[in-house]
Amino acid sequence: MDASGAYCHNPNGVSYQRPEARGIGSVTGSPTSFWVEVLTEKDWPRLRDIRLSALRGFPEGFLASHDREAAYGEEHWRGEFSRGEWNIMLADDLDVGLLGVTRLPDMSSQECYLEYLWVAPWVRRRGVASMLLRRVLDRLRDAGVHTVWLYILDGNDPARRLYQRFGFQSTNERQPLPGHPAGNEEKMRLRLSSPQSLC
Ligand SMILES: CC(C)(COP(=O)(O)OP(=O)(O)OC[C@H]1O[C@@H](n2cnc3c(N)ncnc32)[C@H](O)[C@@H]1OP(=O)(O)O)[C@@H](O)C(=O)NCCC(=O)NCCS
Fold first, then answer.
1. Atom number of ligand 1 nearest to Cα 62
2. Cβ within 8 Å of residue 125, ≥6 positions away
3. Rounded CA separation 133/148 (Å)
């Protein structure tokens, strides 16, 4: 997969390139452009910053804890970075969304996991997660991936609805999570059709 960015047209149809991504935060007014960027290794601090924003803002949505990950040093974050491909959604020049594509060591190149999906609260319900997912799934399909897996915590209905819209289905594989308020996590699967079969 290439490391270049890609434009996304927002619902207003306005789009332009602002590759100089800096910071996570909120602005007044609506963003005018959205841009998906695949992080490169030197960008590990951006993965750290957006991941910590997600954990701080929505601790119940993830298995990890903010305090634990905030204590990780550079070596740990570089290791985390090396687990996958990290897609960032920019709104104008701010990092507002994250989606990771990872593989277990024994996984074929035709399968992968999605992890860490998060969109900043101030741009939610405007199709940002959908744009990010669409872009990433299109690229995976083009790369020959046929099966995409993810885990979702019980009770995360917004994310479940989003995944179902994209065709993810429950595998009925559930894992209890002792000590976590969600109680369980569930594995979901999406079968990607090949580009030819869409013609
Ligand atoms: C889940 C999340 C990524 C959705 O991001 P988003 O940019 O708001 O999603 P979109 O605007 O693309 O929404 C697409 C669809 O998802 C569903 N959806 C999204 N948010 C929803 C909500 N709060 N309630 C119900 N459905 C919701 C809807 O079907 C929505 O379509 P609609 O707006 O036409 O009804 C975002 O709420 C988030 O970051 N949550 C916290 C982190 C998280 O739960 N990550 C998933 C871990 S598995």
1. 47
2. none
3. 12
Show me where the domains of the chain are located.
8-197
Q: Could you give the 3-state DSSP secondary structure of residue 53? A: helix
List ligand 1's pocket residues with C-beta within 6 A: 58, 61, 117-119, 124-130, 152, 156, 158-159, 161-162, 165
Predicted TM-score of the model (pTM)? 0.88
Nearest CA owner, ligand 1 atom 35: 125
Q: Measured between alpha carbons, how far is 19 from 112 in angstroms, rounded to an integer?
A: 27
* End-to-end CA, the chain: 23
Q: What is the pLDDT of residues 31-70, one digit of tens each?
A: 778 999 999 999 999 999 999 999 999 888 888 889 999 9
DSSP 3-state of 2: coil
CA 184, 156, 187, 123 torsion-angle sign: negative
What's the topology of domain 8-197?
A: Aminopeptidase (3.40.630)
Find the length of the chain.
199
**In DSSP terms, which residues pair with 42 in a beta bridge?**
none
CB–CB of 18/35 below 8 Å?
A: yes
